[in-house]
TrEMBL record:
NCBIfam families: glycerol_kin (TIGR01311), PRK00047.1 (NF000756). The gene is glpK. GO terms for biological process: glycerol catabolic process; glycerol-3-phosphate metabolic process. Sn-glycerol 3-phosphate binds at residues 14, 85, 135, 245. Homotetramer and homodimer (in equilibrium). Residues 6-252 form the Carbohydrate kinase FGGY N-terminal domain. This is Glycerol kinase. Glycerol binds at residues 85, 135, 245-246. PROSITE patterns: FGGY_KINASES_1, FGGY_KINASES_2. Transmembrane segments: none annotated.
């Protein structure tokens, strides 16, 4: 046995920050979590406090170190993953944010997106691989420059910098020395040209965003630099991996072969499929995205996002107050044989793939006098599985690959009712891994790969362990009947908020 090594995976997510510490055998030895507040200043607006996100990163790591009973100086390397399109703009001299973080779910730039799409939609798709949407970072940065007093002038003078949350955290961790992002996160901004992997001058000019604000784009797994002990818990730790959360989860699930698919069940639900070295353009509104960039070579993925899944369960708890915790939904759902004909389409902020309808709104149909709380809870869980099933269908069509199995991760995989219903709707087995926090696990793997702990992706694959498999238990006929009902319900939710 050599000396003990420890790796940190730090997941800065939407609802909170998770830190995992894994030893050299890739067993989990410490975990820390810090919840964060969601701010909704106006309808359709979603914000986070950047200082809180930074404090939560330190808090989660401290809690994990405590549980592992080790010090920061024992850490071999740290990898980060971030919530993707959420964006920050801060003063590079003081480190103070000029505005709160505008979160990926935020819809304030929806009309700007419509306008940009009409003028430039095909150009942007050609350059970035993305469909113009308020979801991505570009229009959020532009909004801050246009609406925060003095921001544009300061940006023109080179005093402001912008970045996604990886950029913000790495900047803070290194005491302002590193201003970087990686290929995966850069590809979610709608500003990176996916053909030559650089910030696109034309899009920047079109949106009037000074290029000097943007971070340097680096590989997903490489040694970037060390944390500054004064800034980060007294430790000088190599930062060696960074990715968007969904890509980190794809990596953590060892989906290294084309056709390998994973779905992460979080606030939203995100299904990614490795498509190898070629970018698959979708006919159905799925997003071609960068899975990771290693040694200057990109691996691509198809990304199907569902905005509201776990968030619908949170709504049952917080908004409707008909459950006390997410964990009780399984028993409640199992207490009735079916949803009693109730379908719930949780389009709180519109519908993502495959509809891309930003004006759809939440809809519950099929309610009768016999509908109970249990039916509503069950219909809410089922809505998660229906949305995932629709995305898997289009993924098969777009890629031409017949998917044999789906790996799953995230909080909701603990819900056995949901996982079984999901397997039933998909008609293929679902595999749950031993470590379901695959997002920070993937971030830790990326860092370990960069510092030479692994020599190949095959060595990482060998570490993946399966905990449980769910096999479909219903007929194709039953499956089609359920899906047809769901599609009828979706139709009724569409285009609702359009004035």
């Amino acid at each position: 046995m050599g000396e003990k090594k420890y790796f940190i995976g730090l997941d800065s997510g939407t609802t909170g920050t998770t830190a995992l510490i894994l030893d050299e055998n890739w067993d989990l030895v410490g975990r820390g979590y810090a919840e964060q507040k969601q701010y909704y200043p106006k309808s359709g607006w979603v914000e986070h406090d950047l200082i809180e996100i930074w404090e939560n990163a330190k808090k989660a790591v401290s809690l994990a170190l405590e549980e592992a009973q080790i010090g920061i100086e024992d850490i071999t390397a740290i990898g980060l993953d971030n919530q993707g399109e959420t964006v920050a703009v801060w003063d590079k001299n003081t480190g103070e944010p000029v505005y709160k973080a505008i979160v990926w779910q935020d819809r304030r730039t929806a009309q700007d997106a419509d306008k940009l799409n009409e003028e430039w939609g095909s150009v942007i798709k050609e350059k970035t691989g993305l469909i113009v949407d308020a979801y991505f970072s570009a229009l959020k940065i532009k909004w801050i420059l246009d609406n925060v007093e003095g921001a544009r002038e300061k940006a023109e003078r080179g005093e402001l910098v912008a970045g996604t949350l990886d950029t913000w955290l790495i900047w803070k961790m290194t005491g302002g020395k590193l201003h970087i992002t990686d290929y995966t996160t850069a590809s979610r901004t709608m500003l990176m040209n996916i053909n030559d992997l650089t910030w696109d001058e034309e899009i920047l000019a079109k949106l009037n965003i000074p290029k000097s604000m943007l971070a340097e784009i680096r590989s997903t797994s490489e040694y970037y630099g060390d944390t500054d002990p004064e800034a980060f818990l007294g430790g000088k730790v190599p930062i060696a991996g960074s990715a968007v959360d969904q890509q980190a989860a794809l990596f953590g699930q060892a989906c290294f072969e084309p056709g390998a698919v994973k779905t992460t069940y979080g606030t939203g639900c995100f299904m990614l499929m490795n498509t190898g070295e070629k970018m698959v353009h979708s006919e159905h509104g799925l997003l071609p995205t960068v899975a990771w960039g290693l040694d200057g070579k990109l691996t691509f993925a198809l990304d199907a996002g569902v905005y509201i899944t776990g968030a619908a369960i949170q709504w049952l708890r917080g908004g409707l107050q008909i459950i006390e915790s997410a964990s009780e939904t399984e028993e409640i759902a199992k207490s009735v044989p079916d949803s009693g004909g109730v379908y719930f389409v949780p389009a709180f902020v519109g519908l993502a793939a495959p509809y891309w309808d930003q004006y759809a709104r939440g809809t519950m149909v099929g309610i009768t006098g016999g509908t109970t709380r249990a039916h509503i809870v069950r219909a809410t869980l089922e809505s998660i599985a229906y949305q995932v099933a629709e995305n898997l269908e289009v993924m098969k069509k777009d890629s031409g690959i017949d998917i044999q199995v789906m790996k799953v991760d995230g909080g909701a995989v603990a819900n056995e009712f949901l996982m079984q219903f999901q397997a039933d709707l998909l008609g293929i087995p679902i595999d749950v891994p031993e470590i379901t926090d695959t997002t920070p696990l993937g971030a830790a793997y990326l860092a370990a790969l960069a510092v030479g702990e692994f020599n190949s992706l095959d060595e990482i694959s060998a570490k993946w362990k399966r905990k449980k498999r769910y096999v479909p238990q219903i007929s194709q006929e039953e499956r089609e009947k359920l899906m047809a009902g769901w599609r009828r319900a979706v139709e009724r939710s569409r285009n609702w908020a359009k004035e």
